Amino acid sequence: MKRTIANFALSALTLLPAGVFADLIFEHDDHTYKLVVSPATWDDAKASAEAMSLGGNAGYLARIDSEDENGAIIAALVEHLIPAQLANTIPNDGSEAPFVWLGGSDADVEGSWAWTNNSDLFWRGDFNGSSVGGRYSNWGLQPDNAGGAENALAIGMADWPEPFYDLGAAGQWNDLEEGNALFYLVEFDTTVEPMRLVLNEPFIGGVHTGVGMIRGWALSPEGVERLEVFIDGQYGFDIPYGDPRADIGEAFSEIENSATAGFSVPFNYSALSTGEHTITVVATDAFGDSIERSASFDVVRFDKPYITREETPDLQWSLVSGYADYISITGAQVGGKSYNIRLQWQARTQTFEIIDISPQ
User: Fold this and answer.
1) E-only strand ranges, 146-246
2) Cα–Cα distance for residue pair 43/27, rounded to 1 Å
3) What pLDDT, in 10s, does the model give residues 320-358?
């Protein structure tokens, strides 16, 4: 049974990663691939790919050398792209199917298809042609040079053309005119060095109130470019990056700028409602790779999110008692209201912290 774009879109919707509108990065067989979701002509895509680098290795428009590699690539693309994106990578050839640029071309000699990373010939002729040197290919009923100047290789994301679907299926290749603006796949002959991200605060399973910190450290050999904070799944703000962390610099001395891998920002936890919340920090490096860490915690607070100097808690008529590592305050006056407050000693901060606030 043929799978149309609608079929693929349905499966993609059930498998979306968090950064669905970001460029996709994945690995296969010790190679790294980056799908760029900014449409470009084939020539511009080639130039952009060759300007990228990963671990000192220059990129190139992807080549595919086996059925296994072709399958891994199409599976990753289908899982990542959603219908709104697929609609932005459809060529002007009447097929109404989305495609993604690869690094094959026969611009130099018509019918002689070569990979651009090292000029390896892999196909000679039209759809009745044959592979060169036993190299892999996965054409549909292609190449056909139907437009008269279809010299660039692309992989189909759906069957084509509408409404017959008889020239190619999703995952097969097509020759297209280079001027079409499509997404493109960049390949690197190396794997991504792992990013590292530690979220030190908020404390997982802890209790927070008042003004505290969101802090931790992030590290990537490619350089950290952005740190985003999400509160209960919604984007909140970006955090400045580059706080001194001598301990991280010592532990990862081989990574440039590791001694300034820290981040911190004050945060008013009392601006959140009472109860459980989750803060997620997402770090993205210069290559476009990303990593995230989350911490779920409880918030306790007074009725007002911020207590002014004039509303400083008054304990004059309160009852204060202690047991084990707890301090209980009954009848504290705050902003004209009466509260019971409980504090507990926290070894991680070496101080007593509020763990419960309840109206009296």
Assistant:
1) 152-156, 173-176, 182-188, 196-201, 207-208, 211-219, 224-231, 234-238
2) 24
3) 999 999 999 999 999 889 999 999 999 988 999 999 999
Name the token pair of 161. Answer: 């053309």
* Length of the chain in terms of residues written: 360
Please state, as a whole number, how many other Cβ atoms lie within 10 Å of the Cβ of residue 229: 18
* pLDDT class of 22 with cuts at 50, 70, 90: low
Q: How far are the Cα atoms of 22, 80, 81, 290, 291 from residue 19, in angstroms, in the given order?
A: 5, 9, 11, 9, 10
DSSP 3-state assignment of 102?
strand
Instruction: Look up residue 100 and give its amino acid.
Output: V
Token pair 């690995």 is found at 27
C-alpha pair distances (Å), 95 with each of 91, 130, 175: 8, 24, 12
Q: What's the token pair of residue 15?
A: 């498998």
Query: What is the average pLDDT across 130-135?
Result: 97
Nearest by Cα to 102 from 56, 69, 126, 148: 69
Omega prior to 161 cis, within 30 of 0: yes
Query: Tell me, what DSSP letter sits at residue 160?
Result: B
CB atoms within 10 A of CB 109: 11
Q: Which bin fits 314, alpha (ψ -120 to 50), beta or left (φ > 0)?
A: beta
- Global pTM value: 0.78
Strand pairing category for 182-188 and 99-105: parallel
Residue 96's alpha-carbon distances to 5, 68, 339, in angstroms, are 9, 27, 66
SS3 at position 355: strand
Give the CA-trace dihedral at 214, 270, 324, 348, to 10 degrees: 0
